[in-house]
Amino acid sequence: MSYPTPAKTTFETLEVKKSKFIAYVCAASTREQAFDQLEQVKTLYPDARHHCWAYLLGDPESPNSAAMSDDGEPSGTAGKPILNVLQHKGVGDIMLIVVRYFGGIKLGAGGLVRAYSNAAQAAMEKIVTEHHVELLPMHLLVDFKHEQFVRHLTSEYQGQIMSVDYAQKVNMLISLPESNIQDFTASCHNIGIQIKQG
């Protein structure tokens, strides 16, 4: 499974009737990462009246989790419009925070929805993405003489070595993109390496 994710933090500023809206888009693959990003933005703008947000975790077509907050704005006028923008962009593992400095003129519910939507949209138009590729775990039982070969093969097939334990043989936990598992497995079986997926 592969999908676009934010490659770096992006922001855009929008002014509506003297209120200033600053929209931040950043990567977050867990709820904890999303809230860490929110805390960082709150630290940058501690005197802002509202820090509204939405996130979409996992594949944007079938997210693991989605959440939003109006942070004191009237219900449904901030978090929901931000989440709506995210749901139509096809980007996953994403957190979007819109900071609002009140300018003294009330915008009304419709005006707030438009302002938060437009700020979120403006930030999303500047986003740079990279592709997230899900890696699947595999356990390997390897003779010592084949360890370097397996390390090289793992790298060649865009995998990662998660852990290595040494006993009578080398017990390796690796992860690989699903599209590369069949070829990797065939190469390992040719020299007698035992593989267990999952």
TrEMBL record:
<dbReference type="InterPro" id="IPR036956">
    <property type="entry name" value="Impact_N_sf"/>
</dbReference>
<dbReference type="Pfam" id="PF01205">
    <property type="entry name" value="Impact_N"/>
</dbReference>
<dbReference type="GO" id="GO:0006446">
    <property type="term" value="P:regulation of translational initiation"/>
</dbReference>
<dbReference type="InterPro" id="IPR020569">
    <property type="entry name" value="UPF0029_Impact_CS"/>
</dbReference>
<dbReference type="GO" id="GO:0032561">
    <property type="term" value="F:guanyl ribonucleotide binding"/>
</dbReference>
<protein>
    <submittedName>
        <fullName>IMPACT family member in pol 5'region</fullName>
    </submittedName>
</protein>
<dbReference type="GO" id="GO:0043168">
    <property type="term" value="F:anion binding"/>
</dbReference>
<feature type="domain" description="UPF0029">
    <location>
        <begin position="142"/>
        <end position="186"/>
    </location>
</feature>
<dbReference type="GO" id="GO:0017111">
    <property type="term" value="F:ribonucleoside triphosphate phosphatase activity"/>
</dbReference>
<dbReference type="InterPro" id="IPR023582">
    <property type="entry name" value="Impact"/>
</dbReference>
<dbReference type="InterPro" id="IPR015796">
    <property type="entry name" value="Impact_YigZ-like"/>
</dbReference>
<dbReference type="GO" id="GO:0005737">
    <property type="term" value="C:cytoplasm"/>
</dbReference>
<feature type="domain" description="Impact N-terminal">
    <location>
        <begin position="17"/>
        <end position="123"/>
    </location>
</feature>
<dbReference type="InterPro" id="IPR035647">
    <property type="entry name" value="EFG_III/V"/>
</dbReference>
<dbReference type="Pfam" id="PF09186">
    <property type="entry name" value="DUF1949"/>
</dbReference>
<dbReference type="InterPro" id="IPR020568">
    <property type="entry name" value="Ribosomal_Su5_D2-typ_SF"/>
</dbReference>
<comment type="similarity">
    <text>Belongs to the IMPACT family.</text>
</comment>
<dbReference type="InterPro" id="IPR015269">
    <property type="entry name" value="UPF0029_Impact_C"/>
</dbReference>
<dbReference type="InterPro" id="IPR001498">
    <property type="entry name" value="Impact_N"/>
</dbReference>
